[in-house]
């Protein structure tokens, strides 16, 4: 895998503790950046393979990002709480609600806005992934993916298995929801990955590494047999994202 930092191994994962992420604080925005973003720059944390951005954003009611451009990037928004109003230069005017996921292929160029049109703060994870090639036509897709306890919900899949969306790169993404103490085995489709990134949205998980809300973990893949132990949720359960990167 072409990584932007040290290559991980099965015994030396790349741990990104939540408190060590970059932080942007405005009167309407509380944003935590797993990798270098905007005015925050660290050559050791430029991304993980094609995964360039994981921003955990909380946006105040009635506020948000005005019209701004993107180009040659796959942008995935996972809505965690509240709602977000989206408008773009492709003609879309949509509301993204908790449990829904949006995929926007910026391609040759797109301009969009993201405003919290609700009456309470909203929370989302915005993810940027490099496409396999540049200069593609812009694209938009949005679907509900309510997570189900004790199983993986596919969000991205190159073959669109299980109703997942596909982006312009053979990346897979799952969301996993675990009840307190519940265990979940790793998806078999990870076998084709060159690297894996685990991001905790909420709760706590052990795998055997202990991760809490906002923590991230990068692993080289596949790992030697017999493979990693199942993920196990802590006392508050767990809500997490799992990326299979190529």
What secondary-structure arrangement, pairings included, does this model have?
Layout lengths: L13 E3 L5 E4 L3 E5 L17 E9 L4 E7 L3 E8 L1 E6 L4 E5 L2 E6 L4 E6 L6 E8 L9 E6 L6 E6 L15 E7 L4 E2 L10 E12 L3 E3 L3 E5 L10 E15 L1
Antiparallel strand pairs: 1-18, 2-3, 3-4, 4-11, 5-10, 6-9, 6-11, 7-8, 7-10, 9-12, 13-14, 14-19, 15-19, 16-17, 16-18, 16-19
Summarize the structure in words.
It is a single chain. This protein is mainly β and 246 residues long. The protein has one domain: Sandwich (Jelly Rolls), CATH 2.60.120.10. The chain has no helices and 19 strands. The strands form three sheets. Strands 1, 13, 14, 15, 16, 17, 18 and 19 form an eight-stranded antiparallel sheet that branches. A seven-stranded antiparallel sheet has the order 2-3-4-11-6-9-12, with no helix packed on it. A hairpin with a 3-residue loop joins β16 and β17. The radius of gyration is 17 Å and the shape is globular. It starts with 13 loop residues before the first strand and ends with a strand. The N terminus is likely disordered.
